[in-house]
Design brief:
Strand content: 15-25%
Radius of gyration: 20 Å
Largest sheet: 11 strands, mixed
CATH superfamily of the largest domain: Isopropylmalate Dehydrogenase
CATH topology of the largest domain: Isopropylmalate Dehydrogenase
Structural class: alpha/beta
Shape: globular
Number of domains: 2
Length: 332
């Protein structure tokens, strides 16, 4: 087993696979698959600290993206010099501050300059304000939502958690879009047909817990074709969603129970606590994407590791290529 440094710590990870095969790590498999595609033009908004600049630089060096850096040119160049990062090959679009950088980044997407948008060191609400603007933003008919892509060392599956960053108390219609966004991402990055668990505190439907009723309704919506591409079950509690023995003890028989790959949380508070619990207690890495806009948005925390940013880029690149291919087929 090799050792990977993460936030000043070491963590045991799986070794590389046989010659010619992707490495065994969940994130490394995503990155290796993205490296087989052509680099995607990526608008990076306000990369004005080391982590937010090193992420796109290393993703570019790995052949995943072609960055366009948007923000105060003097500040970006100062970070590059301080951290010994070579950004000489990248275009820099000079803006005076973070708010202007967010608006300019969205403008560049509208102009067809990039297929991905990536958050730098500005606040999330600054970027999302520009993205969600009704007349100049990147809205579509689909609800915008966030997906955490969690690499949990103690769990054999990559876990998608949604939505833990954008929608605070989503209603049934919003949850339909949240689930569809996550399913589309899972399938289009090449992970197959996902098993989707709609989480609550219990696994039985009760009027005392509204999220159990919504879970049952969402499963019926999937039966009627209103949600497609995944296997849904719910309500499920967290334990019997991811642990086969917990599902067996509770007598829950479904292809999802115990084997869930997408975890749909009742609200942002629950999702945020779940994702951070996995990050800090289970030492999980968390990549993140915003979906439902005109382009995928790499939305990571300013405290995220470069590896998490790289994995976010890889997932976004795979998703962008899949969308491009499906659009080509539809227009053929």
């Amino acid at each position: 087993m090799s050792l990977l440094e993460r936030s000043g710590e070491t963590r045991t990870v799986a070794p590389a696979g046989p010659l010619g095969e992707p490495p065994a790590s969940k994130y490394d498999r995503l990155i290796a698959r993205a490296q087989q595609q052509q680099p995607v033009a990526t608008v990076v908004v306000y990369p004005c600290d080391e982590s937010s600049l090193r992420g796109p630089v290393e993703a570019a060096e790995s052949g995943i993206i072609n960055p366009i850096l948007v923000g105060p040119a003097e500040a970006i160049n100062a970070v590059a010099r301080k951290c010994a990062l070579d950004i000489s090959a990248f275009e820099i679009v000079d803006t005076p501050h973070s708010e202007a950088a967010a608006a300019k980044g969205v403008e560049l997407i509208h102009a067809g300059r990039g297929e991905l948008l990536m958050k730098g060191s500005l606040h999330t609400d600054e970027l999302m304000h520009a993205v969600a603007a009704r007349t100049t933003g990147l809205r579509t008919a689909r609800r915008i939502s966030h997906v955490f892509i969690m690499d949990v060392p103690t769990h054999h599956e990559t876990l998608f958690i949604t939505d833990a960053a954008i929608n605070i108390f989503p209603d049934l219609d919003a949850k339909r879009d949240i689930i569809q966004n996550a399913i589309d991402l899972f399938t289009q990055v090449g992970l197959g047909t996902p098993k989707v668990a709609i989480l609550s505190a219990v696994e039985t439907v009760t009027a005392k817990i509204p999220s159990t009723i919504e879970a049952a309704a969402l499963c019926k919506m999937a039966d009627r074709g209103q949600i497609t591409g995944g296997l849904l079950d719910g309500p499920l509690a967290f334990d019997n969603a991811i642990d086969p023995e917990a599902a067996r003890v509770k007598g829950i028989k479904s292809p999802v129970a115990g084997h869930a790959q997408i975890l749909v949380v009742p609200d942002l508070e629950a999702g945020n606590m779940l994702a951070k619990n996995l990050s800090f207690m289970a030492k999980a890495d968390s990549a993140g994407l915003v979906l439902g806009a005109r382009v995928p948005i790499v939305l990571t925390s300013r405290a995220d590791s470069v590896r998490s940013r790289m994995a976010s880029c890889a997932a976004a690149v795979l998703y962008a290529h899949a969308r491009r291919s499906s659009t080509a087929i539809e227009t053929a």
